[in-house]
Hints:
Elements lengths: L4 E7 L19 E2 L3 E2 L1 H11 L3 E6 L4 H11 L9 E5 L13 H6 L2 H5 L5 E6 L2 E3 L3 H10 L4 E9 L7 E5 L5 E6 L13 E12 H12 L8 H12 L2 E5 L13 E3 L3 H10 L27 E3 L8 E3 L2 E2 L4 E3 L2 E3 L2 E2 L4 E2 L4 E3 L2 E2 L4 E2 L4 E3 L1 E3 L4 E2 L4 E2 L3 H7 L1 E2 L5 E3 L9
Parallel strand pairs: 1-4, 1-6, 4-5, 8-12, 14-17, 15-18, 16-19, 17-20, 18-21, 19-22, 20-23, 21-24, 22-25, 23-26, 24-27, 25-29
Antiparallel strand pairs: 2-3, 6-11, 7-13, 8-11, 9-10, 9-11, 28-29
Amino acid sequence: MLDKTLAIILAGGAGSRLHPLTADRAKPAVPFGGNYRIIDFTLTNCLHSGLRRVLVLTQYKSHSLQKHLRDGWAIFNPELSEFITAVPPQMRTGESWYSGTADAIRQNLFLLERSNASYVLILSGDHIYRMDYAAMLQFHRDHGAGLTIACMPVPLASAGSFGIMSVDATNRIREFHEKPENPKPLPNDPHHALASMGIYIFSMDLLCQALHADHALAESSHDFGKDIIPRLIQSHNVYAYEFGGESGRVTPDRYWRDVGTIDSYYSANMDLLAPVPPLNLYQPDWPIRTYHGQNPPARMGPGANGHEGLLVNSLLGSGTIVSGGTVKHSILFPQVQVHEKAVVEDSILFDGVQVGAGAHLNRCIVDKNVRIPPGERIGFDPSADAARFVVSESGVTVVPKGYCFFSD
């Protein structure tokens, strides 16, 4: 069954709510967890699930993403019909860019039709989770489904941000509403609703039929959640697959996060520092693959004047040097430098960031290659920070890539 499945990862979104982290890169290419890119989690799921044919549909500022796929994911053998291939918009069916999730697939129907696949697994490249897709594929076949949608309970207060469904006793979906104003709670739990995770398995014939029919409708927004799924529920067997029930290949932790905003992204990173992380990066049966640069080991040592540093509950990427500084509850990517008497607290520092002597960062995200001047303070005066940087609703300050303090 796995060799008859084609996986398609939607990775072309602009990620405007993650700005400025997406000013120069697509959302799936945003660094995560001190070592990874967001898309690594979806690709790793494909790898460990036994899927060897993967198309990554790119569009917005895709250079960084394509470079990462080349450097970290050129692992399959094309001679065995295995591949992870980036597919930019090619305008084969018209003169428009991708105008919706369904339209992105439709514009590449020629790739689906020549794949000889019987099933299509459609994924998002901007979620953080572990999942055995093989178990979901087996569920799809066992139930004779035309479409299967992965789902999970979410708090009713936030359910309006998802596609919400109602199912019968056999898990067949009877209702589906995309981002409803008044989400319908679960029958046995008034505080939660059943939400789509944006993970779909289609039988190939049904997907092709649905995309052609959707394209013919002028009023359609060409989106799976808004247009295609509600129509298919009325005419075909559409089932809900509950996330977290997988066994054998992955230890189920039921952790899934949409990191589409600064606050949700920051929160998901901080989850990794919990005493018992809800997503364990050290789980031996499902390691997350990524590209690793040729860096020396991380080092913690005294500063030039002999001041000893302090490291408390933090993640350090390779090549990072903390020389006489203090790092508390923070995530540092490779080649970061924290100098003497500098303090980094509750922060995320991307590759190559340098924190000058005596500087103090609190609840910050600092993008690549920024040089924080000695004595600088960020994260303590919201109005002053907002005059220079993006400050999230919860007060996380984001210093953009390559920001130059000396021109202020």
